Amino acid sequence: MEQLKAIRSLAQKNGAFVHMDGARVMNAVVATGQKLSDICSQVDSISICISKGLGAPVGALVAGSRDYIAKARRMRKRLGGGMRQAGILAAAGLIAFNEMADCLAEDHLRAKVLAKGCHEIGFDIDPVEVETNIVIVKTPDPAKVVAGLKTAGILANQFGADKFRMVTHYNIDDECVEYTLGQLKTIHAAL
Predict the structure, then answer these.
(1) Which is nearest to 88 in space by CA: 48, 58, 54, 62?
(2) What is the pLDDT of residues 128-139, one digit of tens each?
(3) Contact by Cβ (8 Å): 176, 155
(4) Sign of the CA dihedral running 49, 80, 57, 160
(5) Residue 187 burial (C-beta neighbours within 10 Å; 0-12, 13-18, 19+)
(6) DSSP letter string, the chain
(7) Among 33, 62, 103, 118, which is least packed by CB within 10 angstroms?
(8) Residue 163, exposed/middle/buried by CB under 10 A (0-12, 13-18, 19+)?
């Protein structure tokens, strides 16, 4: 919040508009205990992805002043973004926004378990640094780890030259974490 307040203050001093790409803002709300309204009070507009983490099939929410939203609607139509049958997607979005945010705490907990397990296996990671559902692990050969995980049916991404990244989400349960740690143990032993 201190960084957001500093950005807001600087923007106001210079007459600038502040927009937040809130793709992971709900994760931040859950991880920090901040209210979404408090975070939003520091920006002029925000887009909130409801398909990342919240499990909606598609979509994002955009919030801002009435003038900003009116302008956004006009731009959406100009770019061919008018949908006639959006009700079903909107219903999925409402469920995602109103109910799935509670599941993010479980995703964060599973990420912490995954990070702790990686540390115990011998990978270079400080589990205390894992605050949400993203686990970034340092290793000399991330490509080999990612390939080994893929062979086991686990998707991870190489993250730079010496790291790989895993993300927990609503489809990942405790058994998935346990299975992943078992595969990582085998892979680490072969490094």
Answers:
(1) 58
(2) 999 999 999 999
(3) no
(4) negative
(5) buried
(6) -HHHHHHHHHHHHTT---EEE-TTHHHHHHHH---HHHHHTT-SEEEEESSTTT--SS-EEEEE-HHHHHHHHHHHHHTT---SS-HHHHHHHHHHHHHGGGGHHHHHHHHHHHHHHHHHHT-B--GGG--SSEEEEE-S-HHHHHHHHHHTT---EE-SSSEEEEE--TT--HHHHHHHHHHHHHHHHH-
(7) 33
(8) middle
Q: Find tokens 């999925």 and name the residue.
A: 92
- Residue linked to tokens 């599973």: 110
- Among residues 35, 31, 49, which one has the least CA distance to residue 106? 31
The one-letter amino acid code at 162 reads D
For 175, the token pair is: 């058994």
> Does the global pTM surpass 0.70?
yes
